[in-house]
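This protein record is not my work; I was only asked to verify it. The record follows directly below this note.
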Amino acid sequence: MNSIKTLYKLMEVNSRDLEIPDAYQRKLNAERVAKIVAGFNERIANEPKVSFRDGHYYVFDGQHTIMARKHMNGDNDLPILCKVYYGMTEAEEALLFAMQTGESAALTPSAKLRANLHGEDKASKEFYEATEDAGLHVGFERGGGVGRIICINTAFAEFKRVGAEIYKEALSILLEAWEGDPDSLRAEMIQGIVHFVELYRGEYDKNRLIYSLRSYTPNVVYAAGKAEKELRGVKRYISIFYRIYNGRRKHEILPMKF
C-alpha cells in the first residue's frame, strides 16, 4: 500500500467521461441513489474519486453520487467536480476502493474481499486460496448455496487467527461430513470446528470425527449449539463437536480443554 500514489487535483469531468470499472466496483444500487437525491446538500457533498489511467477516468469511489447528480439534472450528463488521481494502477484503485470509509456506503464483506483480491492483497489472496483448497468457495453473490461460505468476515478472521493449515483441515471436516450443506457453513459452525481442530490437533482422529458427525444433520448440530446453556460464545460449539466425537466411548476419548 505504501506504493499507492495519492497525488490528485480537483477538476471538473463530464459525467459521460466517467467510467465505472466492473473488475472491482459493486453494482449500482438504485435505492442508494434515491437516498442521496432525497437528502442532497451541495455544501457537504463529497467529490467522487477518479483515477486517470490510460486516457480514461475510472471512478473508484462515488459512483452513486455521480448518478444522483445526473438524476437531479434530468438524467442528462453534466460536469462534476472530482478528485482526479494520477499514476495509479487498476490494482491500486481496487485497494483504495476496498479501504473507503466516511460518507461512502459501507462495503459488504464480499465486495471488500473481491476488491482486495483484484488489488492483489496478500492476506485476502491466501484466504481465498485456502478456502478453495479445502474444497469450498467464497460466496460473492447474495444468498447461500452448497459449498459456499457467506460468513466471510468470520471465516477470514479464523483463517488469520490460526493460519492456513488448521483452517483448511477444519473446513475439510465440514465438507466431508456434510458435503457443503449451507447449514454446516454457518459462522458458529465454522468457528466451532476451527477451534476444535486447534485445540485437539494431533490428538483427535479426523476420520472418526467425520464418521461421528454424519450421524447428525448440520441443522441439528447448529440447533444444539444454540440451545447450550452452560457455555457462551464459541465454547458452545466446541462442546458440541467434543461430545459428538467422544460419544459414549470409554476409551480413547479426548480430555476437556475448554
About this structure: The two ends are 39 Å apart (CA to CA). Residues 122-246 form one domain. The chain has a mean pLDDT of 91.
